[in-house]
Amino acid sequence: MGCLISCVACCFCDAAASLCCKCLPSCRNSTSTRLLYGVILLVVLIISSICLDPSIANFLKKIPYLCTTEQENICNLISGYGAVYRLCFSLSLFFCFFSIIMIQVKSSADFRAAIHNGFWFFKIIAIIGIMVGAFFIHSYEFLFVWWIFGLIGGVCFIIIQLTLLIDLAHSWNQVWINGFEESGNKGFIFGLIFSTFLFYALAFIGTVLFYVYYASDPACQLSKTLVSINMIICVVFSIISILPKIQEHLPSSGLLQLPDI
């Protein structure tokens, strides 16, 4: 009995990352915290993807007394984009609250760090509770507002993602060039050339697939325009990146960065 209580206690404390405490290797609090928050995000992502599956809505409509004419909104609430907005709203609310209470927490010595690194049972219950409550919000204005938030957040995420990719490709290019200049090992140059051609080939294949799957219909003028603009920008920037003036002011500039993005 005491062993069972000890195992259950792990879910309440900062040993939750080990699940059974002694069955799995222990790790630092900060590492286990990142791991568990990542698992939470992954689980919500999987559930959101499942909710977007049209077969889920069709399955729910076959359940007697669930999606009748009077209760049609129930199926709309628990499937489709409405469900995804509510799930993401709940998770955003949870992390927003935690970001507020964790202001100025700089080390594990702060008493609030125990809340951040532990009490996982209560955190999960809180997330589930917020999600359940979010599904009781039937207002379509709620969905519209969160559509705006999602649009703005998606744009910001793409900008940050592109910035990180540019920095990664730039650092990658610089490290391999420095490696060749310092050691004279031609493997760095061959690797750089191979990676550049590989990414350009993948970019070309991706562009062709975009045309085939998203711009093949004559009515898809917007899709054709966007794919074409993206391809033209890639070609133009590739030419600009190897111009003498650019190489003079930024010697580490090259062709690797563009296809990597």
TrEMBL record:
One cellular-component annotation, GO: membrane
Pfam families: Serinc (PF03348)
Sequence intervals crossing the membrane: 34-52, 83-105, 117-137, 144-168, 188-214, 226-246
Subcellular location: Membrane
Segment forming the signal sequence: 1-18
Keywords: Membrane, Signal, Transmembrane, Transmembrane helix
Membrane topology: Multi-pass membrane protein
Primary localization: membrane
Keyword Transmembrane: yes
Highest taxon in the source lineage: Eukaryota
InterPro entries tied to this protein: TDE1/TMS
PANTHER family: SERINE INCORPORATOR (PTHR10383), SERINE INCORPORATOR, ISOFORM F (PTHR10383:SF9)
Recorded family membership: Belongs to the TDE1 family.
Name of the protein described by the UniProt record: Serine incorporator 5
